[in-house]
Prior knowledge:
Blueprint: E1 2-7, E2 18-24, E3 32-37, H1 45-62, E4 69-73, H2 78-81, E5 84-85, E6 88-89, H3 109-116, H4 124-141, H5 147-159, E7 164-171, E8 173-174, E9 177-181, H6 185-195, E10 199-203, H7 211-226, E11 237-245, H8 251-268, E12 286-289, E13 293-297, E14 302-306, E15 313-314, E16 319-324, E17 331-335, E18 340-345, E19 350-351, E20 356-361
Parallel strand pairs: 3-4, 3-7, 7-11, 9-10, 10-12
Antiparallel strand pairs: 1-2, 2-4, 5-6, 8-18, 9-11, 13-20, 14-16, 14-19, 15-18, 16-17, 18-20
InterPro entries: AstE_AspA_cat, N-alpha-Ac-DABA_deacetylase
Keywords: Hydrolase, Metal-binding, Zinc
Pfam families: AstE_AspA_cat
Amino acid sequence: MQLRQHPLPSPTPGTQRELVSLHYGQAGQGQKVYIQASLHADELPGMLTAWHLRRHFDALEAAGRLRGEIVLVPMANPIGLSQWWLQSHLGRFESLSGENFNRHYPEHIEAAARHAEPRLGADAAQNVAVLRAALKTEIQAASADTELKALRKTLMLLACDADVVLDLHCDAQAMMHLYTETPCWPQCEPLAAYLGAAVTLLATDSGDNPFDEACSQVWWKWARHFGDRFPIPQATLSVTVELRGQQDVSHELAAKDAQAIVDFLIHRGVIAADGAPPPVPAPVGDARPLAGSMPIPSPVGGVLTFLREVGEEVKAGDVIAQVIDPITAQVTDLKSPVDGLLFARDTLRLVTAGARVAKVAGREATRTGKLLGAR
């Protein structure tokens, strides 16, 4: 394993942070897998899972079982890790700009296509190599004049040429669930089964360019751009893995999730099996449109109490929670707008008017526009 340090530009004199990446296997040999944890720095289950993955990868490399390259970034957001206010960790948004750490990744699709086109042809594998090289060149040449931009650039340089990208996150309180782009679903389905995902939410360009889509959308956009002129496969499977809720930080869960990821990589051929390869389990959940995942807002502020648990199937009109005004004694029912799976809910119990307190995954696409919350 090689440990590499990536210094970020100092935002003020006397301060500097760095990103650390761990590199296993041999670059250019077989498939490349990129895994990062806690891009939202206050979402900690991924960090513990990364620790368990590191133990696996150390042993697998020593045993000569790696058939590809694996890059592991165990703490993907040193900026967010440093943001504290009166013992409260604020790791989702950069305090300087207010921007979400998992949004607004720069797009270089058109420029890379323009520079790669003279070298594209009838060989799909060669086209993948040419486009990856062009994309990496464009990312490398892009300016990054702030610490946040430099972090985004560094992460994309590590991930943009990978066959598999796993971005480890979590929700507030939730079931295991995944987000991926619709063209990635055939490749993602075994991962969902190994992880026991309750639901996988699919979209094609959900809005604001989160990290996972920045890695995968280049391929279907290039395929659309070139049309029938050149064969362009969906060469990157990129998935946001939501490792349940923020409090689900235990060795038991992290070890289970790390083993599931290793099993998936054996299934992909990145890791050589020790005996019979682990079979793909029967799926726990299914895939549903992200446009059918309905947030449940509260029209009023007050004390929030839930009447339904995460993991329950609910019907349209079912009361999910109530918001109570202690002064007026008014009770406001919060109802599910659709039939679906209550897969995530908030941990706060004092809510403000307009706050989104839960999410129900329906089976039909009903929303349009930007599909992700928290800018």
